[in-house]
Amino acid sequence: MDAVSFLCPVCGQTHDELPHISTDYPEPYFTIPEGELATRVVWTPDTCVIDDEEHFIRGIVEVPVDDYPAPLGFNAWVSQSAEAFMAYIQNFESADLPPTRGYFATRLACYSRPTQFLATTVHFRGGGVRPRIVINATEHPLAIDQRTGITLSMACQMLHYFD
What we know:
Number of strands: 10
Number of domains: 1
Distance between the termini: 25 Å
Strand content: 25-35%
Largest sheet: 5 strands, mixed
Number of helices: 4
Shape: globular
């Protein structure tokens, strides 16, 4: 897709395209004392295991943007059962994995209501592409935005929460 420039109503700058907003770690990571991280956490850019009990994968929540050719993407973390996590690790390149359920494990500051623990469905895409995260039907603003889309102005406002 060709880049699409737009004038941001929040900062007044011209941007070439909407970036994906990314978080490095799932929220439970931040509850672990710094001195214990090396012994309790196994982390890669796409996976995180805490205490050999909590399993997380990174995927993308895509929010359609009205009159814009690409969605606003949130690279976010979701919990997975140990079985689903291992299936993902063993079949990372495969799009043939069935969808799995999990809970959103990322705090998105651009939403006034907490985003952690929202029920999700994870759809695996294979080919090294991060899975697509769908927020299950709820009246949370993130779920509504994912279902109905947002304006470009709203997307710009959300981006500036993460500057």
